[in-house]
Amino acid sequence: MLSNEIKIDSDKDIIVKGSKALIKELGYSGFIRFIRQIEHDGEDYLKIQDEIFKDMSLKQIFEDAKNNWDSKNR
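RE: above sequence
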């Protein structure tokens, strides 16, 4: 075992220790952005976003988001 290796007993240990290392290095928002990237199996989020919102104005996107938020908080 190399001197910088950490003993890992299970897959859960890998997830916990890896998450902590990423949060330490990237911060919470960077960690979330990283997870989003790998969860999409290589899909380009910006291309998906462009397709979803291609025929919508910024005002319409904002109003839809606000209405969705308001309906969930009733």
